Amino acid sequence: MKYMKANECLPEHLLLEIQKYVCGEFIYIPAPQGSRKKWGENSGIRRELQVRNEKIRHYFREGASIDQLSEQYCLSADSIKKIVYKK
Q: Structure pTM?
């Protein structure tokens, strides 16, 4: 979260109105409801994990064991099971 000076980004009439309620304090203004991104969308990690999980499912269908996949991907056996048995 980055800070911006209110007097540099808000119109003066709006700044005066906000100062009636909060003066000299920090205030957080959240993004509109529909504009929020899901976890990992900005960095791309969400997509990377989807690709990794698809590979794990593919290798499992090809005959790789849970233990082999666990070793290969440095994940616990329980994590591999959650990935391959997810509907």
A: 0.59
